[in-house]
């Protein structure tokens, strides 16, 4: 009886761990998603069907993933490629602008497609910050911080929730090339 209970507990913990990893993993795709034409507008029910619970919490409810989690470890291991919105597929960032700020979240010093990223003042949580959103679907991506002294061309840190991103590796032997603006 005791062995059966221990086995059941182990299976439950393993299942929960796998589910947590699935919910918090940054998606990787072999090819770029089709770029949306115009704004993407969906009901909450439609978003809930398409996104994982963690993606929904972050993209649609302005949540924040845990710092230094599995997504951050994945991000640090990824090479050349492009990052797209996990909600609508819009191109957001290139690995060329990626850097390790040691903050526990994916960081970029500039968006690769400025037209697909918007910012707005965020006064939530008793702080004054600048929120970063996908311009196409309105999904919450994270926040941008300026003037922190990073040795980057812009001295900006786009601190982005990794589950809000979909990574597409560059073709072998070719660096990620953002489209010309």
Q: What is the H/E order?
A: HEHHHEEEEEEEEE
Per DSSP, the total helix count is: 4
C-alpha Rg (nearest Å): 18 Å
- The CATH superfamily is known as Peptide methionine sulfoxide reductase
Class by alpha and beta content: alpha+beta
Number of domains: 1
The coarse overall form would be globular
| Straight-line distance between termini | 66 Å
* Average pLDDT level: 85
The biggest beta sheet is recorded as:
6 strands, antiparallel
Query: What is the tally of beta strands?
Result: 10
Q: Output the strand order for the largest sheet.
A: 4-5-9-8-7-6
Strand fraction equals 15-25%
Any idea what the CATH architecture is?
Answer: Beta Complex
Quick structural summary:
The chain is an alpha+beta fold.
Please explain how this structure is put together.
- The chain is an alpha+beta fold and 181 residues long.
- Helices cover 25% and strands 24% of the residues.
- The protein has four helices and ten strands, in the order αβαααβββββββββ.
- The chain has helices at residues 2-24, 44-50, 53-59, 70-77; strands spanning 27-28, 81-85, 91-94, 98-99, 107-108, 117-122, 129-134, 140-146, 156-160, 165-169.
- The strands form two sheets. It has a six-stranded antiparallel beta sheet, with no helix packed on it. Strands 1-10-2-3 form a four-stranded mixed beta sheet, with no helix packed on it.
- A hairpin with a 7-residue loop joins β4 and β5.
- The protein is globular, with a radius of gyration of 18 Å.
């Amino acid at each position: 009886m005791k062995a059966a209970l221990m086995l059941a507990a182990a299976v439950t913990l393993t299942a929960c761990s796998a589910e947590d990893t699935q919910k918090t993993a940054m998606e990787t795709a072999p090819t770029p998603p089709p770029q949306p034409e115009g704004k993407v507008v969906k009901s909450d029910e439609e978003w809930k069907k398409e996104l994982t619970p963690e993606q929904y919490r972050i993209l649609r409810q302005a949540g924040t993933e845990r710092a230094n989690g599995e997504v951050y470890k994945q991000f640090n291991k990824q090479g050349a490629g492009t990052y797209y919105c996990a909600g609508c597929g819009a191109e957001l960032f290139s690995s060329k602008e990626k850097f390790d700020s040691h903050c526990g979240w994916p960081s970029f010093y500039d968006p690769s497609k400025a037209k697909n990223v918007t910012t707005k003042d965020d006064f939530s949580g008793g702080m004054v910050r600048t929120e970063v959103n996908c311009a196409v679907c309105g999904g919450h991506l994270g926040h941008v911080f300026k003037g922190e002294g990073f040795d980057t061309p812009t001295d900006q840190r786009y601190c982005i929730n990794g589950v809000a991103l979909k990574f597409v590796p560059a073709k072998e032997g070719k660096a990620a090339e953002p489209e010309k603006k």
